Structures are given as structure tokens and as C-alpha cells.
From TrEMBL:
Coiled coil: none annotated. InterPro entries: cNMP-bd_dom (IPR000595), cNMP-bd_dom_sf (IPR018490), RmlC-like_jellyroll (IPR014710). This is Crp/Fnr family transcriptional regulator. Pfam families: cNMP_binding. It comes from Chryseobacterium gallinarum. Residues 11-109 form the Cyclic nucleotide-binding domain.
Length: 190
């Protein structure tokens, strides 16, 4: 059950098997049905989740009430509302399952315990947060400085094969365009 998690963290740190067992024992497996909300705007985030199986969209509602997808989390990705988790403020993000999914969840309390008992885990999450910051920076630069055509091509590169698992509306929400405009881009690129 923890093979994908072990493979994921091994990209960042070397954690001996006995330490990994202690690490993994603090995660709870949660099965989530398609369209089920893991987190809603206004709630408080008390966890980080590792996607074992399935797909999630992490989004917010803009001032016009339209969904703006920040990212999709597929197998091997993490989900949370970091601002809410760290600063104990209400969530601005929503996390919804796009497919039936399985997530390994760790509470903030258990994560803090790991920081105190296994320093390499603090290094792991520091590196992951740095990678997340880089991804966010790239996402902002893409949204503000690139054409929709280029953003679509970046999406295809970043999420190979994911387009077949999503609706056209979900892809358009990620790109910040209408699904009609996405259809035009697809036709043009074909």
C-alpha cells in the first residue's frame, strides 16, 4: 500500500526501512468518491494528503463565481491548502475528487511529531515545499505571460495522458479560458 509513497519520498531523502515504517504508520488511508469534496473554502485544513490513486482538482471560485483550477493532483502528488494548514486560517481552496480516489492523509500534529523525531522528514517537506514554490512561480508566469496556446501545450507536457481523464471544462478552468476557446485551440493545433 505504501510503495508509491516510498518511491515519492525517496526522490528527496534516503529513509531507512524501519524509519519509513514509522513514517507511514502515521498516515491514514481515506477512500474518496468521485465529486466528493476533501476540503471546502471556509473550512480549516488539518492535513496533507498523498494521492495513491485517482485524481483531484484544487481550485478556488473567482469573484465572478467561476472555478479557477490551480492544479490537478494525480497519483504521486500531494494535496492540501498550505495557507490554512500553516497559518490556521479558513481555506480559500477547494479540493474535489474527479475520480474515485485513495489518499494517504497525515495530520498536522503527526507531521510535527515526525519533524521532532526524524529530522530527515523535516528536510523532505522543506524540499517538497521548495519544489511547490517553484511550480507555483512557473504557473503564475505561465498564466500572466503566455498565450493560451502555449499554456495548453505546457499542460499536455506537465500532465501527460491526463486530458483523457478530464472534461474539456476542467482543462479550460486550469488554462483560464472558456471551453469554447479550448476547442478552437485544439482544432488549430491539430
Amino acid at each position: 500500500m505504501y510503495n508509491l509513497l516510498y518511491k515519492n519520498i525517496s526522490r528527496y531523502i534516503n529513509l531507512p526501512e524501519e524509519n519509513f515504517k514509522q513514517f507511514a504508520d502515521l498516515f491514514q488511508l481515506k477512500k474518496i468518491k468521485r465529486k466528493e469534496m476533501v476540503l471546502k473554502e471556509g473550512e480549516y485544513c488539518l492535513f496533507e494528503g498523498f494521492v495513491q490513486e485517482g485524481c483531484f482538482k484544487v481550485y478556488y471560485l473567482n469573484e465572478n463565481g467561476f472555478e479557477q483550477t490551480l492544479y490537478f493532483a494525480v497519483e504521486g502528488w500531494w494535496i492540501t491548502d498550505l495557507d490554512s494548514l500553516i497559518n490556521h486560517v479558513p481555506c480559500t481552496l477547494n479540493i474535489e475528487a474527479i475520480e474515485d480516489s485513495e489518499v494517504l492523509m497525515i495530520s498536522k500534529k503527526d507531521k510535527e511529531y515526525l519533524y521532532e523525531t526524524m529530522p530527515q522528514v523535516e528536510k523532505l517537506f522543506r524540499i517538497m515545499n521548495q519544489q511547490s514554490s517553484v511550480a507555483l512561480q512557473r504557473r503564475i508566469l505561465s498564466l500572466t505571460g503566455k498565450t493560451a496556446d502555449k499554456r495548453y501545450l505546457e499542460f499536455l507536457e506537465k500532465y501527460p495522458g491526463l486530458e483523457q481523464r478530464l472534461t474539456q471544462q476542467q482543462v479550460a478552468s486550469y488554462l483560464g479560458i472558456t471551453h469554447e476557446f479550448l476547442s478552437k485551440i485544439r482544432r488549430k493545433l491539430l
